[in-house]
Amino acid sequence: MHSDQLPTGNDGVASSRRRELEIELPRRSEHIDQDAEYCSVFLDGNWRKIRFHDYAEIYRIPGLYEQLFHDILDCRSPDVVGKLLKEELQRQNVDAASLRVLDLGAGNGLVGEQLRNIGAGHLVGVDIIPEAAEAARRDRPRVYDAYHIADVVTPPAEVDGALRSAELNTLCCVAALGYADIPPAAFRAAFNRISEGGWIAFTIKDRFLSAEDTSGFARLVRACEEHGLLQPRSTERYRHRVDVRGEPLHYVAIVGTKHADIPVDLLP
Ligand SMILES: C[S@@+](CC[C@H](N)C(=O)[O-])C[C@H]1O[C@@H](n2cnc3c(N)ncnc32)[C@H](O)[C@@H]1O
Question: pTM of the entire structure?
Answer without folding.
Answer: 0.93
